[in-house]
Amino acid sequence: MRCPFCAHAETQVVETRESDEGDVVRRRRRCQGCEKRFTTYERAEIALPMVIKKDGSRADFDPAKVRASMMLALRKRPVSTEQVESAIERIQEQLLAVGSKELASTKIGELVMRELKRIDKVAYVRFASVYRSFEDIDEFRQLIREI
Predict the structure, then answer these.
(1) pTM of the model
(2) Among 5, 11, 46, 104, which residue has the least CB neighbours within 10 Å?
(3) At what angle do helices 81-98 and 63-73 cross, to 10 degrees?
(4) Residue 89 and residue 141 share a domain
(5) What GO annotations for molecular function exist for this entry (predicted)?
């Protein structure tokens, strides 16, 4: 690890601690060049698949976009933030389980719909009506019958 102060290549780890949850390691280091101390944090990097959008472009998976979509569908519904966060975690776990480097955005939309159906039927219908771009009332009725 290079020193952020003098860019010296050699540093010594003085102290190591894990976070309470055990998912981050904090290390205090001392530069062997300038003797200044600094802190580094180490955490596991999870490689979620790239999202292939409908237009063919690619983007990194962004849980904030999923959260925003879900929160819009859940607006004024009795669903806690913890339930939403748990749903997003389940979606990410499913994306990791696929094992693919790329994934169509439609697959993510289906996962979101499955989670919304699980936690709030009204939000599911709201999301599905926009996501599936219903053209007429019959498509909407069919979705409600499925529930």
Answers:
(1) 0.63
(2) 46
(3) 130
(4) yes
(5) ATP binding; DNA binding; zinc ion binding
